[in-house]
């Protein structure tokens, strides 16, 4: 029993210590997705869907929920954001070459149509991110149209 008590106390000390050493937040001021929006020109409804369901994990500005102030949740969210930005970062769109942009949009279509995105973990606490079939179709259709322009060697208008 003494061993279990020592382990519990040790875990409590670590948990308390984690509250003081938090991961860096993903917050960038200003219009961080302006290059992406200007180049790909999504229709207003698609733009709204991307803002509500994608930008928290796939841009340089995350709107954090209140529970992000509690460790270990803050570490878990930081890892999700870092992982998401590693796959696609709308804030870095202008740094991608046309072939990579085309590929990123191809992946977006796949993830949306196969219901892999947005993550279930995200939609549990963000009801607005639960996409209907119509919303999924709108995003996929826009991304396919935009991909076609990249494949033709033209910039979307």
What can be said about this structure in brief?
With 157 residues, the protein is an all-alpha fold.
Keywords:
single chain; 157 residues; mainly alpha; 60% helix; 0% strand
Whole-number mean pLDDT: 89
Sketch the topology as an H/E string, one letter per element. HHHHHHHH
Largest sheet: none
Helix coverage percent: 55-70%
Report the C-alpha radius of gyration, rounded.
Answer: 19 Å
Strand content range: under 5%
What are the low-pLDDT stretches, counting only 5+ consecutive residues below 50? none
Count of separate DSSP helical elements: 8
Backbone shape: elongated
CA-CA gap between termini? 69 Å
β-strand number: 0
> From the structure provided, what is the oligomeric state, counting identical versus distinct chains?
single chain
Structural class: mainly alpha
Architecture overview:
The protein has 157 residues and is an all-alpha fold. 21% of the residues are buried. The model has no long low-confidence stretch (mean pLDDT 89).
